[in-house]
Design a protein that fits this description.
9 helices, Arc Repressor Mutant, subunit A, alpha+beta, six-stranded antiparallel sheet, 254 residues, Beta-Lactamase
Length: 254
Amino acid sequence: MTETKSAYGTVLLKANQILIAIAVNQASSLSEISQDADITMSTTSKILETLQQINYVIKDEQHKTYTIGPAFLKFNDAFLQEFSIVNLCRPYLSKLRDKFGETVHLGGLENDELVYLDKFSGKKSITVMTSRVGLRAPLYATGMGKAILSTFTKKQLNNYLANHELVALTPTTITDPQILNTQLAEARKNQLTHDDSERDDDVFCIAATICNDRQLLGAFSISIPKYRLDETAKQEMETAILTTKNAIEKRLKA
């Protein structure tokens, strides 16, 4: 474990290692916790005593084992209230918009629909788009929606298709379930989906999901007028989207 010059910082870092040993690595006895945290048993014992006093750790006196205490509960609700996928993603998606000058969206899943959570308007002119924060759209007809659908289990997808008619919104909207399934299989392989003017005429979207430990949190996309899109730009955007996806998901694990 890396030491710091600050005694206070060192103690906090050691306490953190001890809590990780108990909560994440399921160490329970003093020797197990000491070994997992790579801290001497004497120091581990002293830190555990302090953590007990402030209810971060509970000691089972009979079995001489330790578990995480109730003190963390008071922070749980506060964290859930303050945590927002919108706030977390904003610096990454704003940077993505600035890189290409095109419109970037963030979306989420609600009641089998895509809901627009955030929008970063492009710095270049774009054909008419119906997107705005709070708007809902069908999953099958949008890039973000198809990215979300690609995370569905076979049962979930079958239920979705059984309960949602694939209505054409533009001449290129996918209305054939077999074609949609083929696109979703490609999306699972490449981690990218495309919307070729399927909801808005003459607008091409490239999208990807945001997940944490396989749990879907949302999706994001770049939208560009088709007249401004060529194969080079498409490949550059796809690479940037995957880089952004990896950065956001890495931040979620930090």
